[in-house]
Amino acid sequence: MISATPSVFDASLSQSDGEGIDAYVERHAPGVGYSYYGAGKVALRDGLDGLVEPGGNVLVPAYLSPAVVEPFRELGLEPRFYALEPSLDPDFADLESRLDEDTVAVTSVNYFGFPQPGLERLADLTDEYGCYHVDDNAHGPISVADGRLLGTHGDLGITTLRKLLPVPDGAVLYRASDEVEAAFEPSSLAGRADRFGADDCRYLATSVAETALDPLYRSIESFLDDDDVSSVDPIARYEAAKAPMSKLSAAVTDAADPDAIRAARRENFRAWGRVLADRDDLAPLYEELPTGISPYEYPVLADDSSSFLADLEDAGVAGAHGWPILRESVRGDDAYETANRYAESVVALPVHQGIEPSAIETVGERLRGRR
Ligand SMILES: Cc1ncc(COP(=O)(O)O)c(C=O)c1O
Fold it and tell me: Which atom of ligand 1 is nearest to the CA of 160?
């Protein structure tokens, strides 16, 4: 069974000689200040806190999980959703129509670990309007584009370690510009816990159950993740995320071997590409896998996402899912055509380092057998 996330008990995930995330960040984003947090949303709040006043607004792409805008709301900022092209470039006409003198920041999102198309034009625009560029890299903690770690391409950025490693929580705040670095004052939620807590134990216990009973358990990520379609109220999600990074996450982060993990994810991404290449009811969201990218998942646009998900489950893939549930103000609004269409038809397939490419080939054979 192919699960959504790697297991903490998978020995291949971390090596005694793994460089860990710190050294990888310092290698690919030299000189950038960074801090660990329990969640990307809280990191985002702390990163912006010293820079903005209540009453401003922040532009975010409409194709997004609902809780991601809660830190802006906590800071007294109005989140405004901008439309996307089918390529996932911002619809710049729509974006500019929503910008005004109270706009304090524009967020880009590196979907599925790939840089959001149009990043350079967006950076030009934030320069022109004198607002901050937030590089939301929740999905791609170790992706590198144009020689720089994703998440560090704006003034400030975040990444979510839970989307890379078998950890109960964990995120990084990047302070890429001098102004952001100078204004930064960490709250009590910054940093890493120095003791193991109840959540660490709960995570380990669930991991044991998942490993022992594999096919019956969908994923521990399902009760941890904002992206889960059964997610409850976004404010409750945000409040629940307010804790420093756990000690268990810190230990796994320090032992990780990012180069090996990226290589494994790339191999699995390519395996899905081969396996699904002859399906004319599916279109991959990314045809190419540029050097440096560590994919979060392998997303495809499916003509009938529900029946494809059911076929995948029958073929042994428990970790595929649609993404995301949209915020209510975006759902069904014709102004956000791409976001609504993608939320309906994207199926994201797991590529994590706990999967052997041969398991993906086997799923491919089973899927072909059904057609
Ligand atoms: C694009 C994006 N940004 C930010 C976040 C929030 O990250 P975290 O769950 O670490 O707060 C998510 C959620 O998973 C996300 O999908």
Answer: 10
Tell me which of 136, 169, 326 to substitute to probe ligand 1's pocket, judged by most ligand atoms within 8 Å of the beta carbon: 136
Q: Check if the beta carbon of residue 272 is closer than 8 Å to that of residue 225.
A: no
59: which strand partners?
80, 106
Domain count, the chain: 1
Domain with 340, as residue range(s), is 255-369
Instruction: Retrieve residue 10's tokens.
Output: 């998978």
- Average confidence (pLDDT) over 218-226: 46
Whether 250 is covered by a domain: the verdict is: no
The residue nearest atom 8 of ligand 1, judged by CA position, is 40
Distance (Å) from CA 41 to ligand 1 centroid: 7
Residue with tokens 């901050």: 132
Distance from residue 149's CA to the centre of ligand 1 (Å) = 17
Above 50 in pLDDT, residue 133?
yes
Closest ligand 1 atom to 65 CA: 16
Name the one residue in this structure whose structure tokens are 């003509």: 303
Both tokens assigned to 2: 């192919």
Does 321 fall in a domain? yes
The predicted-structure confidence for 235-279, as pLDDT tens digits, reads as follows: 999 999 999 999 999 999 999 999 999 999 999 999 999 999 999
Question: Tokens at residue 36, please?
Answer: 């660990």
Q: Does residue 282 contact residue 276 with C-beta atoms inside 8 Å?
A: yes
Question: Nearest residue CA, atom 13 of ligand 1?
Answer: 226
CATH number of the domain at 325, please: 3.90.1150.10
Residues with CB under 6 A from ligand 1: 39-41, 64-65, 68, 109, 136, 138-139, 160, 171, 225-227, 241
Q: Is the pLDDT of residue 102 over 60?
A: yes
3-class DSSP state for residue 367? helix
Q: Which residues contact 191 (CB under 8 A, 6 or more apart)?
A: 35, 36, 37, 244, 245
Distance 366 CA to ligand 1 centre (A): 33
pLDDT digits (tens, 9 = 90+) for 157-204: 999 999 999 999 999 999 999 999 999 999 999 999 987 777 777 777
CA distance 71 to 59: 13
Residue 167 lies inside a defined structural domain of this protein: no
On whether residue 134 sits in a domain, the answer given is: no
Please tell me the predicted confidence (pLDDT) of residue 92.
98
